[in-house]
């Protein structure tokens, strides 16, 4: 079978290698791997590229706050009190005289750590259960999908609030609970992908050669579902950050002295429409920028993994 011209990165009107006036074998027909094609398509999505840069800068700024923050963590100046943004304090200060740029950077560590950890755990659990359900079908599929449906109908915020009250509201507890209630969506996506992939010729060939079901899933099936998995993982990051912020705003999230962007919003909820409104605007802006960036990256990944994408 002739190779796909997109894989060879050769224009459709280019002469065949070796033909008169054409290029010799190996001179112009540069074979591109799937990852090279992925990066080429991803770079064409400008908003995804810009969002990646913005998100990386925010991650570096937050997790490098020890060295980059203009003041030390929880540095207070009670005589200064709450002030509006200025050249010294770009985002102003709160009632305790704490610099808000510094506080947002340190709070971002918690929000981003929760988002990334929840996405990782929920993706691992969802991918594993979805792969097993899709590959084995029959009673395994029925059991796992009914379990998924059960978790989907559970009122997440109510369960989260009850669980956090019972087990504590540390960042680790919040991560485990959010991951436990967020794996279902990825599981359903992976299952639907594997139901079609497992009937492909190369999977049948691997099965006929005596490969174990675990090897077939890991080596032949899951690599062909990496696109949807990564896209849903990015969405899980945004969803986890928003959910944690919602919990903190309602008083069920992380508690002082630990802080997050949602905790900062909760502490400043009474300042809307007052001279101290900047205390709620900037943490909210940080949340908005991160969630938008993650969603744009998800759009870019979706287009990059789509072989039909043309931009």
Task: Chart the SSEs and their pairings.
Elements: H1 5-8, H2 34-44, H3 46-63, H4 65-68, H5 100-136, H6 138-152, H7 156-167, H8 171-180, H9 184-197, H10 201-208, H11 213-221, H12 226-249, H13 261-267, H14 278-305
Task: Provide an overview of this structure.
The chain has helices at 5-8, 34-44, 46-63, 65-68, 100-136, 138-152, 156-167, 171-180, 184-197, 201-208, 213-221, 226-249, 261-267, 278-305. The longest helix has 37 residues, at 100-136. With 311 residues, it is mostly helical.
Descriptive labels:
14 helices; single chain; elongated; 0% strand; 311 residues; mainly alpha
Question: Nutshell version of this structure?
Answer:
This protein is mainly α and 311 residues long.
> How many DSSP helices?
14
The helix/strand class is mainly alpha
Taken from the alpha-carbon principal axes, the silhouette is: elongated
Which percent range fits the helix content?
A: 55-70%
The count of β-strands is 0
CA radius of gyration is: 25 Å
Termini separation: 27 Å
For the residues shown, what is the average pLDDT? 78
- Identify low-pLDDT runs: 1-31
Q: Secondary-structure element sequence?
A: HHHHHHHHHHHHHH
Sheet of most strands: none
- Strand percent estimate: under 5%
